[in-house]
Write a structure and sequence with these properties.
By secondary structure, the protein is of the alpha+beta class. The chain has two domains: 2-253, BirA Bifunctional Protein, domain 2 (2-Layer Sandwich), CATH 3.30.930.10; 264-371, Enolase-like, domain 1 (2-Layer Sandwich), CATH 3.30.390. The chain contains 13 helices and 14 strands. The strands form three sheets. Strands 7-8-9-10-6-2-1-11 form an eight-stranded mixed β-sheet, with helices on both faces. A hairpin with a 3-residue loop joins strand 7 (128-130) and strand 8. Helix 1 packs across helix 9 (233-247), helix 4 packs across helix 8 (207-222) and helix 12 (316-329) packs antiparallel against helix 13 (339-354). The longest helix is centred in the first third of the chain and has 19 residues, at 105-123.
């Protein structure tokens, strides 16, 4: 039987929570005889975390976070904005990718979610994996999943498991696309999308009750023994450096944020996630293109498109040519993004910039974006 390191922590800050996960994925994997770690932890009330490829200012009310004392940062994993606190259990598995048999990253979602699904079943909750990145009960989300594969070939698997949720607190900092509704209607709308362990069982459920089952089921699923070992003083010092360099660094947190002269925006719903495209023009010339969203993969492909379009004419034929050539240069299999979707989104953003319309979209992973429609905007 193999040994995995086990770490349990509570009431951590946004930057520390993410910093430890990155440390375990890279430094811990490289330096230890037993390189796989399972970490279960909770954040301080509250920490707002955007997905890696999102425009954080469009998803999280930064000024509200600052005034309310909420932490905020950007994850390594993709997906939508979330809020974490003492009633949302963070689960992180860090390991070398060679430790498991897999061909496509989607297989890792299913593999690592099995112990969590088993835990929910033992509690009396019938949950299942949804093909993109959620665990659902019926049609309601109870956990969000994320996977990041580092350039060194190490895996970081994230889960946010909802034991309970303070929806008014969540909605005070996450920009959910129903601001025009009354507070009561907002809460009802989000409640139709989310569920929690406590809600499903109609009783208060403690973190420790769930933690014990998670530990047991990871051990059984992977045939391993967990040995508890907290971070050493030296390791915490390394985590502090990661926090400073990344999760407390505005350059990391506010990347994928549009510059002030970007005046057009368009949205496109794809099976890979929501694409939000910003464009800046000087006359009929494209100064910049920025493609953000709650997707999980293909950031390099989109970066190549952004770079290739800079200082090119706002011409649909040119956009189609660039997108086609980038797709041809890259091996793209089942990415969920079609060339025509990307072309349409960029072209629409350019047309909106030309007529001076300002389009905004506010959202998070907790709300079904495909059902939203606001004044002067549409999700297509």
């Amino acid at each position: 039987m193999k040994n995995w390191r086990y770490i349990e922590e509570h009431n951590v800050s946004a930057s520390y929570g993410l910093g430890v996960d990155e440390f375990l994925m890279d430094q811990n994997v490289k330096s230890r005889t037993n390189p796989i770690s399972l970490r279960l932890y909770t954040y301080k009330n509250y920490s707002a975390l955007s997905g890696r490829f999102q425009d954080i200012s469009a998803e999280i009310d930064i000024e509200k976070c600052r005034s309310e004392g909420f932490g905020y940062s950007r994850r390594l994993t993709g997906g939508g904005a979330i809020i974490m606190g003492e009633k949302q259990l963070g689960i992180c598995l860090a390991a070398p990718s060679s430790a498991f048999e897999w061909k496509h990253i989607r297989e890792l979602y299913e593999l690592f979610s099995k112990p969590i699904i088993q835990t929910l079943q033992e509690l009396g909750i019938d949950a299942s994996f949804r093909s993109k990145n959620d665990l659902e009960v019926g049609s309601k989300k109870i956990a969000g999943l994320g996977v990041y594969l580092s350039p060194e070939g190490n895996i970081q698997f994230h889960t946010s498991l909802l034991l309970d949720m303070d929806i008014p607190a969540m909605m005070s900092v996450l920009k959910i696309p129903i601001q025009k509704y009354s507070d009561k209607k907002k809460i009802n709308s989000v409640s139709q999308r989310l569920t929690t362990i406590s809600k499903e069982l109609n009783r208060e459920v403690s973190i420790q009750e769930v933690v014990s089952l998670i530990r047991k089921n990871f051990s059984l699923q992977f045939g391993i023994a967990l040995f508890e070992e907290s971070l050493s003083r030296s390791e915490k010092s390394q985590v502090e450096k990661i926090e400073k360099d990344r999760y407390l660094n505005d350059d990391w947190i506010f990347q994928n944020s549009p510059q002030a002269d970007m005046t057009g925006m368009s949205l496109k719903k794809t099976s890979a996630g929501l694409l939000r495209t910003y464009i800046g023009l000087k006359g009929n010339t494209i100064k910049s293109v920025l493609i953000t969203g709650d997707f999980f993969e293909q950031s390099e492909l989109l970066n190549q498109i952004e770079t290739a379009l800079k200082w090119s004419p706002l011409d649909k034929g040119k956009i189609e040519q660039v997108v086609r050539e980038v797709f041809e240069r890259n091996v793209v299999e089942n990415c969920g993004m079609k060339q025509e979707d990307i072309v349409t989104n960029i072209w629409r953003a350019g047309q909106r910039a030309m007529i001076g319309e300002k389009y905004t979209y506010n959202g998070s992973c907790y709300y079904p974006k495909e059902k939203t429609k606001e004044v002067n905007q549409e999700v297509v």
